[in-house]
Amino acid sequence: MDTVVLLTLTGLGLGALYFLVASGLSLIFGLMDVLNFAHGALLSIGAYATWWAADGNLPGAGSGGFGFLLSVVFGTAVGTAAAVLLELALIRPLYSRPREQVLATVGVGLAVPALLMAIWGADARPFPQPDALSGTVHLLGAAVPVNRFVLIAAAAVVLGVLKLFLGRTRHGLVVRAGVEDRAMVTALGIDVRKAFTLVFAIGGAAAALAGALGGLYFGSVSPGQGTSLLIFAFVVVVMGGMGSVTGAAVASVGVGLVQQFANYYTAAGLGDLSVVVLLAVLLLVRPRGLTGRLA
């Protein structure tokens, strides 16, 4: 029983990490029809910015208490700023050229890890673990790391905020309207470009937060971390339905649980294969994914 509890909560923690990355991807594709292959780079930027701040390089930041919270806020802010810069400088001039968009974002996705590697080396760096988050909680006989609960709580908060944003705010309604009919929204005098930048900023913030908290889950940061997580985030987006935040949340739970249980009860590495099989089966049954809408 304790093994099942540990695997379940670890799988939910991993699924929460996938959701934080996939939620931004889902929003960006849902409104802008942009497959942002640089999204993993934003995660890496957030992870390294948080690590850099928590390592004592930012006044007031650190690896414990309020200092670590400040480090996470700093890492998330840096990732958000990078996302806005990416949209303004690279994506905006290429809105009408989708093939060039893909090539440009792939290029950024490859260049950022290379830049991080050139500055800090290719080896993984130990991630500072606050004392309050480095212990375990005993639940039904299982010793569950505290950081799993932190990831699950962060994903739940992000999901709630995104739902409120899309359903209860003016900007959220503009986003939903832009998904349905971008030309009509523009004809009404609404600057859709600002909505695009806002969505990119939100997506970048979620990815950077995933990088900041992913360091807690893995215990380290590395240049290629964002790229590896991006693969599973795309799987989650496709399974949940392109443009559906709710679908991404449900799919991320399924992917995280399947991966953890398969890795434990079968040969090592079969967890990734199980996720691919799950994706194939779901698309055969529901080609549009679980929901296929922005909600």
TrEMBL record:
CDD domains assigned: TM_PBP1_LivH_like
InterPro entries in UniProt: ABC_transp_permease, BCAA_transport_permease
Subcellular location: Cell membrane
Gene Ontology CC annotations of this record: plasma membrane
One annotated GO biological process: amino acid transport
Record keywords: Amino-acid transport, Cell membrane, Membrane, Transmembrane, Transmembrane helix, Transport
Transmembrane region(s): 6-27, 34-54, 66-90, 102-122, 142-166, 195-218, 230-257, 264-285
Segment forming the signal sequence: none
UniProt-recorded Gene Ontology molecular function terms: transmembrane transporter activity
Membrane topology: Multi-pass membrane protein
Family: Belongs to the binding-protein-dependent transport system permease family. LivHM subfamily.
PANTHER family the record matches: ABC TRANSPORTER ATP-BINDING PROTEIN, BRANCHED-CHAIN AMINO ACID TRANSPORT SYSTEM PERMEASE PROTEIN LIVH
UniProt-recorded name of the protein: Branched-chain amino acid ABC transporter permease
